[in-house]
Amino acid sequence: MLEMLLCENAFDSINHGFIHLNLAEKEGDEKDYKQALLSIFQGTELLLKQLLCLKNPILMFDKNSLYDKCVDPLKPKLEELFECKSLEVNKLCSEVKRIYPLEHKSINFKVIEKAARERNKIQHFGIQIQQENIQLLILELYNRVIRPAFIIIGTIIEDNDNSYNDYFNEKLNLIFNFFAIADREEDWLKTQNKNFIRMNCHHCGNFSLFVFYDHQSFPVRHYCSSCNNSMDKIDSDEFLICPECSGLSLIYDESIEAGTCLWYKCANNKDGGILVEMEYCTDCQEYRIEKKCKCNINDDD
What we know:
The chain contains 10 helices and 9 strands. The protein is of the alpha+beta class and 301 residues long. It has 2 domains: 7-176, no CATH class; 178-300, no CATH class. The protein has a 4-stranded antiparallel sheet, covered by helices on one side. A 3-stranded antiparallel sheet has the order 5-6-7, with no helix packed on it. Helix 1 (7-27) packs antiparallel against helix 2, helix 2 crosses helix 6 (109-125) and helix 2 (30-55) runs parallel beside helix 7. The chain is globular, with a radius of gyration of 21 Å. It starts with 6 loop residues before the first helix and ends with a helix.
């Protein structure tokens, strides 16, 4: 039986990226920011391949390449696979969605698309990247893809110690000092008698999103002290029913093209928050939430 565990390889690439990210934060060298993104993105690709490999190693290879290089494409030899072309990242994402229809909801593939676009720019054009943008992109990539991927892999191989994620969480906090900054922000807001709650940020995954009610029965604004995630003004008619908690607390976030629930007790907010698949339907002129809107609800009836 062919077995190809890629976790350690992925870990090494991501860890190498974090080393460069730490150097970049200390010294401000753009080359370190560049290398951080390249290494962390490479590790992310390896994690997606690991997810497919745990089901069947041939899933992570291009089918045409398998038929071209292997005597038996359905039962290839390891030496033959070394000659095969693996799937590109967009096809990897599609395959993970197909193989893991339930688990993939915790992974935000739009973040991978953004990271892939920036990776391609670096590889082909050598452009400069704004420090703030690279920081946020790496945070999103870790919290929206890397962390949930490690959790899924750990569950499948019955190894539920979260050592990978614990290690990277600690590394990120040492680099950015998120917890101390958020704690200071919370203390300051309390001295100002602000009406707020603190919850996990849907962008960076840190417990640093401050949601303000300003004496209303619904959130009116929010911001994160760890990243640039913020909404300066939220109207009550923007809220929709959350499919997880059934609360009138779901709101569309244009920056990540997904829905976020702002009720801190919602299960979708555990460990950084699961994004809700959400897009505008031009037919019924309302939002389609998890592929359901007035159009197909009426069809079901």
